[in-house]
Design a protein that fits this description.
Low-confidence stretches: 1-22
Shape: globular
Strand content: 15-25%
Mean pLDDT: 95
Number of helices: 21
Structural class: alpha/beta
Bound molecules: beta-D-glucopyranose
Largest sheet: 6 strands, mixed
Distance between the termini: 86 Å
Helix content: 25-40%
Strand order of the largest sheet: 11-16-15-14-12-13
Length: 767
Amino acid sequence: MIMMIRICIFCCIVFWGGLHTTAQTPVYKNKNEKIDQRVKDLLSRMTLDEKIAQMCQYVGIEHLQAREKKMNEHKKQDFFAFYPGLTGSDIEQMVSQGMIGSFLHVVTPAEANKLQRLAMKSRLQIPLLIGIDAIHGNALVSGCTVFPSPISISCSWDTALIRKSAEVTAAEMRATGSQWSFSPNLDVARDARWGRIGETYGEDPFLVAEIGKVMIEGLQGSESDNRPKVSACAKHLIAGSEPINGLNVAPTDLSERTLEEIYYPPFKAAIKAGVHTIMPAHNEINGIPCHANKFLMTDLLRKRWGFQGFYISDFLDIERLAEIHRVASNQKEAVYKSVKAGMDMHMHGPDFHEPIKQLLKDGLLTEDRINESVRRILEVKFRLGLFEEAVIDEKNMSNNIFTKEYQKLALEAARRSIVLLKNDSVLPLQEKHKRILVTGPNADNQTILGDWSLRQPDENVITVLEGIKNEMNGKAMVDFVSVGGSTHKIKKEDINHAVQAALLADVIVVALGENALRFDGGNRNSGENVDRDDINPAGLQTDLVEALAAVGKPVVVVLINGRPLSVGRIKEVATAIIEAWEPGSMGGQAIAEILSGKVNPSGKLTISFPRSVGQIPVYYNHKPSQYARSYWGTSSEPLFVFGEGLSYTSYVYSDVSLEKDSIKRGEATRLSVNIKNSGKYDGEEIVQLYINYPVSDITRAVKELKAFQRISLKSGETKKVVFDISPEMLTHFDVDLQESIETGKYTIFVGASSKKGDLLMRYLDVH
Ligand code: BGC
């Protein structure tokens, strides 16, 4: 009996205690409540100022302080931004008062924690959303894994591997305190002068969309995933990659048809993949700056395509509506136009909160409109679990980044991304190559990391020289001659030194190209805001290769670059060319393994290489009349084409057949092809399927990539590859820009690259 009473008393305590706690815990703090209920509850408790604050993003305090000094030297570079009149401690105070909702460029975990703890002191304890440009690994944070840059990894055409790289990026971001990656970059690359080509997945809209999709899935995971995930940001809306003069921020002027066919598909796919956020582009499109473009942000993406997440402005681009584009006469009007068009969050700084308040006072904006944005932002914070876990375990951090497993993945990514462009039987290196000279401006530095990386600890980066030394240890002697670490500052004496050493070598490996490192000051000649009016290798790099080739020894050129370069002269004199792009932390090792033959190269270009700047724009999916005439005195063909890449083995394509070669509109069919590895090495081949559309009222590209598969084949092995040909692949935009399927004769191509000679074809009749 006594026992029973005790149990009853205990139950009462638990019951009342439970009720008491429930009554005290606001709905928004209860992780078992539905997210929309939590958002609703929180919103109902917020003051107007607290709401607007959620729409405001600021630059990290440490970053800010470091940049304050540099700002004086580089007045016009946004990267060195600062807030006049606001000190770091003012900003800290604002956080503790709940007056800031988000940060970017917080590059140390300690700072991330400090800021989150300050946010926990605020009245409603709303955690901060911390964003970072983790576009190929969390490379802006020291000690994290750097994957090959986007243009590099796209050349692997390996969506499973790219998804894994995004998962690792998400894990390292969460381990170091940020939860929002400003990635993927869905710009379709069409102008090699533009410095940001390295941030893109190349020139094909379908491939960009496929890679964008797996990046989003890898970063964001699914709700049921039991792993750290972050929010992705599809950017930049739209077409900033085709500026009229090759310069970042310059206007883009394109037809609605080109937008539909080339630039919209990756964004449509991103929305379908559930991307949490989207960033408009710096540029104007057909006369309307993207940051004030209601058609794009609201009518098209939100209303027609169903985008549910929130828009973040690009770095000070709301300000530029008045300062550069002149579609607003002051910041208040700029804020008005942008928010009216659909903007939800301001990157970055204080020039947003007050203008919004004034616009509300003037009756130009309503609190309902503000609520919409805040609801979207809070929803993302809840989905990321930030209300439960915003502060990270700093002590354990180093165990969770650059792990052995992540290094292995970065190495594999580099191996699969590298493209062999020329090989006159020198590679893989052979026993007769007993003495190797390594030289070139990119042979022994961190240029292999690419843009959006900060300097990484030396021990975390395998340079080209280090990779070759490791790999050749015991097999060949490796000499190194430095020509300085700058691609455009090589001197004649440097070339002479290299030539002297070349006399003693059996083979020469010369690493050159570009430098996109934002910490490398005057040596930087690629990357964001580093656009060029010529795309030859900068400085005396071509002279260096020519002088080395004149020695009469085989010369292997390793290109480290973020954009296609006009390497016509180099192609003539070099014995082999390896396009390594920006292969990341483990890049030097991967390059060396390809040199030695341990790894058979398998990457294929995702962007065409113009012979000269005058050929731009160059892309494989051009209209039929584009080369109806040719240039005087030179070839009109690009130097290297989309989809090409050599291997140490050879593949033979045969027996192409269509399951049905005549179908009704709306029906599907299948294409199969046999591929044989007819060489001595095991290898991986990227099989590409292109479609050319029938005669119609609208001109279509000569071919368009519609599917691809990466397959592995042992030496001597044959595999049958099957592609589904879906109605979606046969769809196009008709005269009225409506999606429809034409009747007529389609040509289906399958093969090793977009080159005519590499493709087999079959006709498909659609009636
Ligand atoms: C770039 C964005 C980037 C942002 C934040 C801007 O200059 O255009 O792509 O996400 O800076 O770093």
